[in-house]
Amino acid sequence: MTQAIYFDNNATTKIDESVLEAMLPYFKENYGNPSSIYYFGKSIKEEIVKAKKNIAKLLNAKANEIIFTSCASESNVTAIMNAVKLNPNKKHIITTSVEHASILETMKYLEGNGYNITYLSVDEFGKIDIEELEQAITNDTCLIAVMLANNELGNIYPIKKIGEIARKHNILFHCDAVQAIGKIKIDVADMNVDTLSISGHKIHAPKGIGVLYVKEGIPFTPLIFGHQEDNKRGGTENVPYIIGLSKAVEMILDDNYKINGRLEELRNYMESQIKENIEDVIVYGDLKNRLPNTSNIAFNGVKADELLLMLESFNIFISTGSACNSELAEPSHVLVACKADLENYSPIRVSLSKYNTKEEIDIFIKRLISIVNMLRRKK
Ligand code: PLP
Q1: Less crowded by CB within 10 Å, the N or C end of the chain?
Q2: How far apart are CA 181 and CA 248, in angstroms?
Q3: Which residue of 100, 152, 241, 326 sits with most ligand 1 atoms within 8 Å of its CB, as the best mutation to test the pocket?
């Protein structure tokens, strides 16, 4: 079996060796409960505080604004439900049609419970229209929820501008920054966000750990009640995972986003090689303003699922879009929102990480050229 080539890093990433190493003592020796009053527990509480400081530094936040959760989905749901509980008389929310399922499914639930949701449309490049957003605001609006970067297209949305509009109208603003973390700078103060979520497993920390940033002074109702996290999220802290996330964040701080320059070069090299060697290719998304590691690409007449199966037989792992939707075998809601011609141009998503190399890209392109040609001949 040839070495696996993993190009699905927007779905999840490999745990970094030093992240795992940092976590292991907290499974073995340092297993005390952080809420205990004796040293064996209290010293672990101190490590949690340090982890909060690291994460706060990455987001330009304060340590007391960081809440650990079980995943970013929990963070997203908590932020939305908090906004709803804070404004019981306001029944309107603005979001986009390209958010992650954890946002869209919560909106669906709220729609079933008397809420009116505006789903901002996107153009063919997946861009939203700020004017449409501002026009959608009413006296009944209790929340605006827009992602910083899209998981399928890599598009980066104008969060700072949206934050200014939200502030002007005195409306809470939540931002899902799961795909942006580590790939572009996040500054919660500059972006005017009230709440923001991130997840460990997109930055080489484990699955099952998330963060919710809640701006100081915003009244907060937990989703899970209890004494931990300053009464904001009950449940004994997942200490090893918090330590792992903190280590992954430290690595981003140490690297200072330099890795992304290399990823962007690799991604651009891949796209130019594909376009040189394969006819009639489309790259979806806002090509001037997207994450450095992401490429959403389609080959006329080639069905993405057939292509992916063939690539898998060569141990190359890529997805058609969001891992959360792929089991449903439904077309991507993001590309449907872009009104993409999915019949003729069904896309694959290549998402790179620091572990990917030019050699892997070259192997992938060689295989891709022969598979696309073969599938086109079969038609
Ligand atoms: N938001 C976005 C944009 C995502 O891509 C994901 C994960 O795929 C999530 C939220 C959910 O993160 P988690 O798996 O930690 O719940």
Answers
A1: N
A2: 11
A3: 100
